[in-house]
C-alpha cells in the first residue's frame, strides 16, 4: 500500500508496548496535522492469524479489542480467552455468510462488514435468541475493485433504512477498504467518498451513526486526514502476517 512498512515481529510484551505507542503516536500526529482532536480516532488492533500465545503478550500491553476477519478464528479466540479476559471486545471486520451469523451473535461486539438486508435480519433474529446487541458498520465499496466486498454508496441509504426496525443492531457508521494501489490520490479518493456518503446519510440516520472505519497499516494516516474515526491496524502492531 502507500507508506508504512510493517512493524518488526513483536515477541515480547515490551515489543507490543513499543509498537502500540508508535502507532498511537502516528495517529496523534495525523490528528494534529488534520486539525482534529487526538481522541477522535480509535485504534482497532487487527489480530487475524496471530496466535493466542502472542495475543496474551499484546493484551498485557493494552490491546482490549480483537479485530478478526474470519468468524471461526474469532470464535476460537473468544473460547480461549473468555474466562481469563472477560473484558475483551471482539470486532468482526471481514465479510460474513448468513449461515455464520449465529456465531457472531454469540460473542461479537462490533461487525464492520454489513452488506445486505438479509444478513441484517438474520443477525437480528440470532441476537434476539442470545439476548444480545451488536454495533454495525455498513461496508461500502469505494474503490470499484471487484475483489472488495461492500455495497455501492448509492445503496447505503436503503440498507440503513432497513435497519431502523432491527432493534438489536446499532448502526454506528460506514466502513471501507481503499483501493490496493500506491497511488495516494486514489486511496484518499476512497476515503473522502466514504466521508461524503456518511454526511449525506446523517440527516436521516440515528445519532449513533457517526463513525468511519477506514485505514489500515499502510494508509491510516491518509484515512485520518479524510476523517477516519476507527483505524484497523494489524501489521503495524504485530509485524508482517504469516499465513502458513
Ligand atoms: C487484515 C485487515 C486489516 C488490517 O490490515 P493490516 O495491513 O494488517 O493493517 C484491516 N481491515 C480488514 C478488513 C482486514 O481484513
UniProtKB/TrEMBL annotation:
Keyword Nucleus listed? The answer is no
State the InterPro entries in the record: Ala_racemase_N, PLP-binding_barrel, PyrdxlP_homeostasis
Q: Which cofactor does it need?
A: pyridoxal 5'-phosphate
UniProt-recorded Gene Ontology molecular function terms: pyridoxal phosphate binding
Top-rank taxon of the source lineage equals: Bacteria
Q: Which UniProt keywords apply?
A: Pyridoxal phosphate
Q: Which family does it belong to?
A: Belongs to the pyridoxal phosphate-binding protein YggS/PROSC family.
Q: What does this protein do?
A: Pyridoxal 5'-phosphate (PLP)-binding protein, which is involved in PLP homeostasis.
Alanine racemase N-terminal domain span: 40-241
Protein known as: Pyridoxal phosphate homeostasis protein
Q: Does the keyword Magnesium apply?
A: no
- The PTM N6-(pyridoxal phosphate)lysine maps to 48
Amino acid at each position: 500500500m502507500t507508506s508504512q512498512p510493517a512493524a518488526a515481529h513483536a515477541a515480547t510484551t515490551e515489543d507490543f508496548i513499543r509498537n502500540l505507542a508508535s502507532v498511537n503516536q502516528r495517529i496523534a500526529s495525523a490528528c494534529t496535522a488534520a486539525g482534529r482532536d487526538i481522541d477522535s480516532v480509535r485504534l482497532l488492533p487487527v489480530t487475524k492469524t496471530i496466535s493466542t500465545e502472542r495475543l496474551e503478550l499484546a493484551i498485557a500491553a493494552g490491546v482490549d479489542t480483537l479485530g478478526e476477519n474470519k468468524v471461526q478464528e474469532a470464535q476460537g479466540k473468544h473460547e480461549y480467552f473468555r474466562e481469563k479476559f472477560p473484558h475483551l471486545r471482539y470486532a468482526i471486520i471481514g465479510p460474513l455468510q448468513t449461515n455464520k451469523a449465529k456465531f457472531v451473535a454469540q460473542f461479537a461486539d462490533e461487525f464492520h462488514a454489513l452488506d445486505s438486508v438479509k444478513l441484517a435480519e438474520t443477525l437480528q433474529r440470532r441476537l434476539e435468541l442470545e439476548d444480545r446487541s451488536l454495533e454495525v458498520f455498513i461496508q461500502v465499496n469505494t474503490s470499484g475493485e471487484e475483489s472488495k466486498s461492500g455495497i455501492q454508496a448509492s445503496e447505503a441509504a436503503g440498507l440503513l433504512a432497513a435497519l431502523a426496525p432491527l432493534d438489536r443492531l446499532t448502526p454506528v457508521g460506514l466502513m471501507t477498504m481503499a483501493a490496493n494501489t500506491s497511488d495516494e490520490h486514489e486511496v484518499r479518493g476512497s476515503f473522502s467518498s466514504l466521508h461524503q456518503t456518511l454526511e449525506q446519510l446523517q440527516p436521516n440516520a440515528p445519532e449513533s451513526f457517526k463513525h468511519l472505519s477506514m485505514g489500515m497499516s499502510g494508509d491510516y494516516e491518509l484515512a485520518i486526514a479524510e476523517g477516519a474515526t476507527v483505524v484497523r491496524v494489524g501489521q503495524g502492531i504485530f509485524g508482517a502476517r504469516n499465513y502458513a
